[in-house]
Structures are given as structure tokens and as C-alpha cells.
Predict the structure.
Amino acid sequence: MRCDRALQRQLEGYRLATAEILYHLPDHPGLLQSYIWQDYDLAPRYPILGRFLAFWTAELDGRLHSVRLAGRRIISAAEIGAGTMLCVN
């Protein structure tokens, strides 16, 4: 049986989070570049995004300017039918 990790995470309360990260170009700090990050994360604290931004700040040269976040719940456990097979850890 093949497990659908995205489905499993959604059933655990994760939601699809998308962040638009604006950062200063290292060689041209007056210019901004956009980076789109997307993963399943837990609202309202978004710990996975927080770890990514901490990594960015510690390891990458482009200084952060701003982060715009959107989160969307895709499904809920109630929307899964009784006959649906889920992965068991």
C-alpha cells in the first residue's frame, strides 16, 4: 500500500501554507527578489515556516525584507469517507 503523506498531514491538522518572501539581493541590497515557499504547516504558529526562516537568516546572504503568508485548509477528517484507506505508522 502506498501512503499519501500530504493526505496524512492534512488529517493531522496541517494546512497548505504559501509564503511570498521578499529579500534583498546580496550584491545589490537596493533591489528586492521574490521567493515562493510552500509546505504543509500548522496554523497559527507555522513552525515549519519558522524553522525555514531561521535557516534563511542564519545561512543565506539575502537579508529578509518581508514575508506574506497565506494558509488554506484543504480537507478535514469529516470529509474522508468510511471506506478510505489511510496509512498506519
In short: The chain has two helices and three strands. Residues 47-59 form the longest helix (13 residues). Residues 5-74 form one domain.
